[in-house]
Amino acid sequence: MSIEELFNFLLDHSPALIVAIPLLGAFLTPLVGKINDKVRNAFAILVVAFTSFLVFLLANDILTNNTIRTYVFGAENAGSPIVRILFEVDGFSAYMAIIASILAIAGVIYAWSHMKEHTGQDKFYTLVLLMIAGMFGMILTGDMFNFFVFLEITSIAACALIAFYTNKGKAVDAGFKYIVISSIGALFILFAIGILYSQYNALNMAVIADSITFSFLDKIALVLLISGLAMKAGIVPMHMWLPDAYGRAPASVTVILIGATQASLYGLFRMVFSVYGNVFSSIDVTKDTVINTINSVNSVGWMLIILAILTMLIGALMALKQSNLKRLIAFAALAEVGYMLLGVGVRLASKVSQDITIAGETTTQVAFQGYSATALTGSVFHIMNDALDIGLLFLVAGAIYLVTKETSLNKLGGLARNMKYTTVFFLIGLFAVSGMPPMNGFASKLMIYQSTFQLNPIIAIVAILCSILLLAVFVKVFHSAFLGPKLPSLKDVKEAPKSLLIAMGIIACIIIFIGLFPNLFVENIVTPAANAIMDSAKYITAVI
Amino acid sequence: MLFNLPYIAVVALILIGLAAVIFKRNLIKIVIGITLIESGVNLFLITLAYRGGSTAPIYTATTTEETIMSLPVPHALTLTSIVIGVAVLALMLTLVVHIYRHYGTLDARKIGREEE
């Protein structure tokens, strides 16, 4: 078999392998762990690295050719594929898979030194790999029930990892909160899947999307899906697990947990724009109910905008008053989730029916306003930026905790004198998360500001305000943790171990790269992904 | 009306479960609430599968063209969901045990409030 054939073989089977390899690796880890610790850590990194390689192979193919790949499980050529479990990878899935793989590889490399002194590392790596497998499954699947199963795999593994420090009461408490919220959310989703199945007799997302009518039951299912996924993504009324979980989990887990949260957000995008895409993007103008449908689409949009604004405000304001570094970053992460949701809301709220006069003949058309595409692209871009920025900040916080055993800002100070690289990484993360011009956060936030401004200036003002608040928060952190004289208690602090620096370095390099060449990045990766999520017809025809 | 009885039971189970999760302070009762929601959803899936006068979806010698069978897919979904539910339940109870060891109480108001 030549190299090219091997690559094609891997590419053809990559959707299945991306999930299967971490899953297999997860259960091999305890066995490999019998040899010794270093071999096991290297094995885990190898598994994630190979998975990431497959992700990049797949994403490269999909984003450059702008195609959709499907992978049908089960016997070949035996009946129609739509009754089987099916993976469907479009540009948006590929894009999310890239994000997930960057976070996963940074998290696993980081864990090498970060978890060194803990017992139970075999189980730790098993759970991490399980969580990664579940995350990729959620992103790649094209089947509703399969989505639910992967969601549960992710949340069970994540819950066990959040409560990893079982010797600390608060960590266990955070884990309990997480499992309560995520299992209720998952049950809501299962209920919605049942409702959809009862009407359309299908579990395949594309098949449901093709035949959806937006009946009363569909509306109930939509509400259940959005609320279930919002619980998992940490959107405001259901956000109270997020600061605890992010703050209490080991930093290497938090990075991957960000990916899991965003996989839920991916689910929200997928349900709204693909499964309900026919309802939202192509409303039949000839029907009498068109105004009704537009109104309900707009009200869903405004509801999401209100939730997004609340998420941003509460996240930024709560971050201001925290004195625990990891909790503070967790609230900032919450604020960032708001920006991502904002694009979805703006897209749906901008749906209008307008009378267009072409050659003296007036026709009514239903269309999205032009700026909503920018808003959605901005949101999609922001998913990547948030993952990198917040991920980097959590890694820095974890490094500080590892060397000082301290997370309270009141007891930290003068770290810049001993931890040069960490300080630089924190500065990069600080500028990126608050949307300062040279970094990546600026590019995506600008897209969100300018498009939401056209819908309603107040939304844009609140969004900018939250961004400024975040800058204030992190400048405060930078001042109190890194600047100032050396504290006597922190006199012997050393620079963070190498594996931590490598993990932070990977993410920082990507942040700077995106910040310097945002256009290159937007044109080649983000725009194809955003177009894929907006084009529900293509998603449907790829299967049927 | 009688035909809708299972659906009424489903909604009742889910609402009782949600009420328990939201209003109860005892962690064990919260866990029970979640299991109630889960039973409600499972009952919903099973009810969906039933068609009036149907038999189990198995081909036998007596199966004719007129035999109505219940839908097999929701049964498979329910089984999977039960298995996942057991895993979640076990995990939640483990955490409750850990919490009890740390705090000596199961009252949600007294957990995780200590200063560090």
Can you offer a commentary on this structure?
The complex is a heterodimer of chains A (544) and B (116). With 544 residues, chain A is mostly helical. Chain A has 20 helices and four strands. Chain A has one domain (3-541). Chain A has helices at 3-33, 37-65, 91-114, 121-140, 144-162, 169-200, 205-211, 216-233, 241-248, 251-275, 277-281, 290-321, 325-349, 370-404, 420-433, 440-455, 457-482, 498-516, 518-534, 536-541; strands spanning 69-72, 86-89, 351-358, 361-368. In chain A, the strands form two sheets. Chain A has a two-stranded antiparallel sheet with strand order 1-2. In chain A, strands 3-4 form a two-stranded antiparallel ribbon. Chain A is globular. The relative contact order of chain A is 0.10. The model of chain A has no long low-confidence stretch (mean pLDDT 88). Chain B has a single domain (2-110), classed as Helix Hairpins (Orthogonal Bundle), CATH 1.10.287.3510. Chain B is 64% helix and 0% strand. The mean pLDDT of chain B is 89. Chain B contains three helices and no strands. The chains are: A mainly alpha (544), B mainly alpha (116).
Low-confidence stretches of chain A: none
Computed Rg of chain A: 23 Å
**Judging from the principal axes of the Cα atoms, what is the shape of chain A?**
globular
Structural class of chain A: mainly alpha
Largest sheet of chain A: 2 strands, antiparallel
Largest sheet of chain B, described in full?
none
Span between termini of chain A: 33 Å
**Mean residue pLDDT of chain A:** 88
Task: Give a quick set of tags describing it.
heterodimer, A: 544 residues, mainly alpha, two-stranded antiparallel sheet, B: 116 residues, Helix Hairpins, 3 helices, 0% strand
Task: Describe the SSE topology.
The complex is a heterodimer of chains A (544) and B (116).
Chain A: H1 3-33, H2 37-65, E1 69-72, E2 86-89, H3 91-114, H4 121-140, H5 144-162, H6 169-200, H7 205-211, H8 216-233, H9 241-248, H10 251-275, H11 277-281, H12 290-321, H13 325-349, E3 351-358, E4 361-368, H14 370-404, H15 420-433, H16 440-455, H17 457-482, H18 498-516, H19 518-534, H20 536-541
Antiparallel strand pairs in A: 1-2, 3-4
Helix pairs in contact in A: 1-2, 1-4, 2-3, 2-4, 3-4, 3-10, 3-14, 3-18, 3-19, 4-5, 4-10, 5-6, 5-10, 6-8, 6-9, 8-10, 9-10, 9-13, 10-14, 12-13, 12-17, 13-14, 13-16, 13-17, 14-15, 14-16, 14-18, 14-19, 15-17, 15-18, 16-17, 16-18
Chain B: H1 5-23, H2 27-49, H3 72-103
Helix pairs in contact in B: 1-2, 2-3
